Predict the structure.
Amino acid sequence: MDKLQELTQKLYDEGLAKGKQEGEAVLQKAVEEAGSIVKKAQEEAEAILAKARKEADDFKVKVEGDVKMASMQALQATRADIESLVIAKAVDEPVAKALSSEEYLKGIITAVAQKFSAEEPADLSLVLPESLKAGLEPFVKNELGKLLGKGVDASFSKKLAGGFKIGPKDGGYFVSLTDETFKDLIGAYLRPATKSLLFG
């Protein structure tokens, strides 16, 4: 009976020791795996955080660049508007006044028509502002034709505020010397000087 009890105790002790050893091994393995999982999770979290920081920095740089570009464009547009206002103030009224003056137009029309007459033998066609018809129609019919020694046809248009268009009667083209073309021409010369004066 003692032998049986001793054998049972021995088997129990050995089983207990073996179970304890296996349990410790399982526990050790679980601890190692848990540590590995935690480490991997930390690495992934750090990678996600680094990526988020990089994307945030990239977005910040992009936004700053967009804001800077928009500011530059707004500044350039404002400068262009100021230039246009200054040039318009300096040019629009004097040009409109000059090109709606019958005497001034007579002089320019005569000079341009004589140039055409010298270079092109064809009769001339003129388009003039409707608002100046009363004063310019007799000049074209009576004086200009005699001066050039050739026919000059005049038509009057409500689309012209000032100035005129001139060309060979059958030439298929006109040279435009209207208030708009004068403003554009003078504005092109004034723009660089105005820009320098306003903005250095």
